[in-house]
Design goal:
The chain has 143 residues and is mostly helical. It contains four helices and no strands. It is elongated, with a radius of gyration of 16 Å.
């Protein structure tokens, strides 16, 4: 059974998994394996939805988590966190859904145009989500 205290690690794993699925999906489209590309991208979206549900549940149970790092790392952490949060919202509620809908409607010209923005931003969100987890719960956590 997964405990609430385990959810940050689960969330980081979901973020990393989403990022890996995006990379494999991108590799598939570059090699013209469109069915595999679609499967990996839809899977990345599903994993991201699972992440969001788990993240919201965790914070509904625990509340706010404070960053313990001091010195120069503090503004670095908050710069990463701020960009991560803003881009995560844009990705989850605009870029990813629009990109998927355009593909589902077979509007591949329009899909490709937005996917060029969606992929790197979504990858940034995935990678920085894992980085934030380590900074918050491991590297600068209170002992």
């Amino acid at each position: 059974m997964i405990e609430v205290a385990d959810l940050p690690a689960v969330n980081a794993t979901l973020n990393a998994t989403s990022g890996a699925l995006l990379i494999v999906g991108y590799a598939c489209i570059r090699t013209r394996r469109t069915a595999a590309h679609a499967t990996f991208m839809i899977s990345a979206f599903a994993v991201s939805v699972l992440f969001l549900a788990s993240y919201l549940y965790y914070h509904a149970q625990v509340g706010r988590t404070q960053f313990q790092g001091q010195g120069v790392v503090r503004p670095v952490y908050f710069a990463i966190l701020w960009t991560h949060m803003v881009l995560a919202v844009v990705t989850a509620f605009v870029l990813a859904p629009v990109t998927l809908v355009r593909a589902a409607r077979r509007r591949f010209d329009r899909h490709k145009a937005i996917a060029r923005w969606t992929l790197p931003i979504w990858l940034y969100v995935s990678v920085t989500g894992v980085l934030i987890y380590f900074m918050l719960y491991h590297w600068y956590a209170r002992s």
